[in-house]
């Protein structure tokens, strides 16, 4: 017997008039040997249905029938009335229910009030297993299930396994987004805070309590303030310094949530305090450079922490210089004196005021300001006062390099001088753009740089390295003032390429960026250009057109093989958390998508072990970006752009309704591979950017291989003319005439 995609079902429900539910189990049948008899219709499968205290049934399930009719037939065979009170349930995976009208939720919630500890433990375990199912969660929530779980959590009669199970079930139900986190009561939140602040607590409870408080903090500003006031930063530091990686991750998650919810002033005070308690050093030594691999969730929280650290610079970046501020005028004078009066000598002693002002203006011009009044250069935002901060930091912490930079360029008379102030202002803008200072945090990004946790004042130190790189590149390019923008483009490329390598320390960054001189940048550009460009000769273009179908077939084959290998996807909840995984792959015969939930850290499952199946023939359409139902209702802000770029869905018929299988790709490359593969399965063209790049690369390689024998032979722009036909065709030989 060949089983269909729903060949493992459970029919569960409650007998009318009895308080306890009885489950019906369906066992998966093995495929029988091929038979010479006529095959049944494709939508008819044979399944075995078993119920306790009843004789099992072997039924022919017509999947085109309404579900209610199938339930009625099965119940009639066992003489059961009220078939509408029973429900179909998957036997594998999370045993999800298919129908909405079942009383399993009521039975489990009744078990929560049982006096037996063992019965409550079994009930909570079953509840945790079923809670991820949306239909079951609706039933539980509609029957005040959250309130009953909240009572167990608030009472705290058992601080071990029962409390952990109750917290897990509560979180699973809340993740569906049917109930707002803002509805939680203050006593309930305070009780969860107590579990976080306790010293002797079960290791399985505190990560769940921290996760709950993180959700509360991100979703409710009022309750977030309560959590901020009740959970000391020192307590979070204690959790971060344990060797339990899960507890570390959840403590970091709550810490970043509290920082995100704080005002800019509060955030600065909090980070200053954490840095005084050596949190930066601990993260760098014990988390980033830990022997254990860094998880995706911890990488995301470190990215958020880095963004918040750099975000403290935004107020200075948005503030222009005030020409009437005595403090800022003194800072400008200090910058000038550090370059031209290193011994602290007063300018123009004995000179008139006009003469002193003239000398000051001339020295500011030598310093590289475009205007004699430097305040006019620093009125631009960004970078505002942040550029002045960078210049002052460089002059005070690298005085010899600063003096050498300024004096070396101010004394040149060959128009090749590099203007320090103008370069510093533009370089500060460039660094802010590369590091995305002032932009909102992405909710899925993980690209933090370990370098920013390696030492204090990392941004200013990065500027000190970059401004010396700019001077070096300027001299290598033998640039003049007219080449300023070209130099900045090269420096941008040098910095961007080096930052992409994610060096672990500033010294390593300095080494790598200095190993990328202007000549090497030109070589890399030329190499990339040769990879991207192809010859435009008509014969070559014709050859490429002839090669395209074969190479597109090769790309299609690769995409389908990638789908057969499968990919781990992350589930994004209503708040787009990334703490759940599921695996999806294409069957070897390219007829079925197989998928199911997996635990983080486990090896990829085999296709046979995946509980869910979706026939490719049932797929109607492929949706991407904002057309996907799981991101359609999200906002359109910058923070959602990265989510739109990775989202895709397939729509299929589920009974009389249209259903969707939703994906969030782990990377842009995986997004292209999967959308290409699904398009190929649906007979649609593969139009992704990755397909274009792969086709171009294959065409270039194949064209070069075909042209190896024509090396150093010029290829004409036009094909040679066709000669006129011969006067006769007597030279032709007819092979069909036998020789005498």
TrEMBL record:
One GO MF term attached to the UniProt entry: SH3 domain binding
PROSITE patterns to which the protein is assigned, alphabetical: ELMO (PS51335)
Sorted UniProt keywords: Apoptosis, Phagocytosis, SH3-binding
Tagged with keyword Lipoprotein: no
InterPro entries: ARM-like, ARM-type_fold, ELMO_ARM, ELMO_dom, ELMO_domain-containing, PH-like_dom_sf, PH_domain
Pfam families: ELMO_ARM, ELMO_CED12, PH_12
Domain ELMO: 327-499
GO annotation (BP), single: phagocytosis
Signal sequence, renumbered to the chain: none
Function per UniProt: Involved in cytoskeletal rearrangements required for phagocytosis of apoptotic cells and cell motility. Acts in association with DOCK1 and CRK. Was initially proposed to be required in complex with DOCK1 to activate Rac Rho small GTPases. May enhance the guanine nucleotide exchange factor (GEF) activity of DOCK1.
Name of the protein this chain belongs to: Engulfment and cell motility 3
